[in-house]
Amino acid sequence: MHRQLFEHIKKFTDLDKEDTLVLSSLLKSFSVKKKQFLLEEGQVCRANYFVVKGCLRLYFIDIKGAEHTTQFAIENWWISDLTSFLFQKPSEFYIQASEATEITAIEHHHYEEIFRKIPKLERYFRLVLQKAHQASQMRIRYLYSMTGEERYHHFNNLFPNFVQRVPQYMLASYLGFTPEFLSKIRAKKV
Amino acid sequence: MHRQLFEHIKKFTDLDKEDTLVLSSLLKSFSVKKKQFLLEEGQVCRANYFVVKGCLRLYFIDIKGAEHTTQFAIENWWISDLTSFLFQKPSEFYIQASEATEITAIEHHHYEEIFRKIPKLERYFRLVLQKAHQASQMRIRYLYSMTGEERYHHFNNLFPNFVQRVPQYMLASYLGFTPEFLSKIRAKKV
Description:
Strand content of chain A: 15-25%
Order of helices and strands of chain A: HHEEEEEEHEEHHHHHH
Number of helices of chain A: 9
Shape of chain A: globular
Oligomer: homodimer
Structural class of chain A: alpha+beta
Number of strands of chain A: 8
Largest interface: A-B, 32 and 32 residues
Radius of gyration of chain A: 18 Å
Distance between the termini of chain A: 43 Å
């Protein structure tokens, strides 16, 4: 149960048998179908989600009605609306499965408990959050420093398999342009 | 020495005397003048900076030559270009003092060491990074969900003193509009 998360944790910190049992009892693993929502605007984000297999995305809808994907989470990434999750207040985001996805989740009422009972998880989540914050700093930088076409090729070079996996309109909104623009770039390359 | 950082750490975790001595020996406190740079594009980010007093900002210059401030750090906040700091590669950002600023810094060659020698700091930095990542998720959200004027008033309500402290053009670039637009909004309110 929750095997993949434990393997991921093991890369960063060593949990003993007791820690593993305690953590197991506080986790929840489940599956969601493609397009299913884990969070919708106005709801409170109940959990921090770890992707075992599949893909989740965090997005919001702007005042003009356009979707903006700000984060994807594939295998071994965590995703959550932290403001809503930490303060248990209504979210301004959506979290949706862009593929059928297997998830291991930590619900809010267990979140502080895991750190109290298993202090070694502080290191694991320090590293997870450090990576997430670093990626988010770079994403903003690239949104402004490259042309749309450069951004697509840069991203395609870094994550070629991922680019094939997600629907065009989601990828376009993540890279900060329209689906039509993405089609044009792709047409050139074929 | 480094008193304010220790007081900030104390809010989140308890360091014993030995921890305090070890950490003290690995920190560096110093002052920078207004407009002085701690990092310029192309340089490697040498440290993670904690603001004791004053204000630092992280910004970049886009392909059109415009400045974009993505983060401010005032008292008790940390600031760094994480990609450059963690991987010791040339930065695509600037870190500049927007006021005369007192700083306590952890240099890169001591960064892993502090966690190895003082595991309790994992909790402190997990919470610092969690807060930074949460703030960054919300900033992106607000950039798209509010009009420029709404964004200004929202930010002004949250941080009225801060809005008075920073130069108009920096605040404008953080809020995602031009200095001219900011002058117009302010003129309306006076």
